[in-house]
Design brief:
This protein is of the alpha/beta class and 241 residues long. The protein has helices at residues 6-14, 44-48, 93-100, 135-144, 184-199, 212-225; strands at residues 18-31, 34-40, 55-62, 65-72, 74-77, 82-88, 106-111, 125-130, 150-156, 172-178, 204-209, 233-235. Bound molecules: flavin-adenine dinucleotide (FAD).
Length: 241
């Protein structure tokens, strides 16, 4: 890691984080609010390996100050040393970087904290709750748990119907939920359907990745009120509202 990432960088360094610089090779505007950036990996994938839902900590510049945010690898290819990133665009330094990204731009990254524990036994049904920020991770999860059918609650703006969900209509049911009332609409829809669905599932796996408040509300509901054991669920807030 370069000097000057401040105490956060120093702490990650002490934790033996690995540092890499990625280079942009191309970009694609998937929709008005979603942009894909293609990159070379600076040797990262060969050094770290790859796992489902893998993410990296990227160091953006915020008027001269380091600004670290997590992003998920899309289609990592260790042999080629390439991957893509998909940015849900909103206000913010990471989004601004993605909007302006062009071939030749570089960005530093730290790999620390990412991991994936495959549910055992294999789920007979996956219940996944996500949004555009966790869409790359959701796609990766569904790709990894490719034997299981899934019900997906996908929260997004009403005009985001073109987002690249890699779902298979034969196995995956997608329930689109407009983001309303700071995520409360999503909470209501999940709570009204999940108990019955869980009741019919011998080996469920519940995956929750939306804004931090909604994620906390839903994970505590699933764990405490529905009694799903913690090894049969995964919950991580992806952004702070
Ligand atoms: C493990 C992990 C993996 C992630 N992978 C991805 C990924 O692949 N693609 C991706 O787009 N995001 C991903 N995120 C989310 C991303 O890190 C956050 O959205 C981050 O806050 C973006 O930083 P920023 O500098 O653009 O905005 P910030 O400076 O953090 O926030 C600026 C403003 O934008 C709002 N905001 C932040 N994120 C969102 C959002 N998603 N939607 C609406 N408003 C928002 C904030 O509330 C704030 O008002 C991931 C998060 C985690 C924890």
């Amino acid at each position: 890691m370069g000097q000057g990432h401040g105490w956060e960088g120093a702490v990650l360094k002490l934790l033996r984080a690995k540092d890499f610089a990625f280079t942009v090779t191309g970009t694609e505007d998937v929709s008005e609010h979603y942009r894909r950036v293609h990159l070379t990996d600076g040797g990262m994938l060969a050094a770290t390996g790859v796992h489902p839902t893998m993410w990296v900590r990227l160091w953006f510049d915020n008027a001269g100050r380091p600004h670290q945010r997590a992003y998920t690898l899309v289609d990592p290819d260790p042999a080629a040393g390439t991957f893509s990133l998909e940015f849900a665009l909103h206000e913010g330094c990471a989004s601004d970087w993605a909007r302006a990204a062009k071939p030749g731009d570089t960005i530093e990254a730290t790999v620390h904290g990412t991991g994936f524990e495959r549910p055992r036994p294999e789920p007979t049904h996956v219940f996944a709750i996500g949004d555009p920020a966790s869409l790359p991770a959701l796609n990766s999860l569904l790709g990894a748990l490719d034997c299981a059918p899934a019900t997906v609650w996908f929260e997004s703006a009403p005009d985001d119907s073109t987002l690249p969900l890699r779902t298979d209509p034969a196995r995956h049911e997608v329930r689109r939920v407009p983001r309303q009332a700071d995520g409360d609409r999503l909470v209501t829809e999940v709570k009204s359907a999940l108990p019955t669905l869980l009741g019919a599932t011998p080996e469920p796996y519940v995956w929750i990745a939306c804004d931090t408040t909604t994620t906390r509300t839903l994970s505590s509901y699933v764990r405490r009120e529905l009694g799903v054991p913690k090894q049969r669920m995964h919950a991580l807030g992806y952004w702070r509202p």
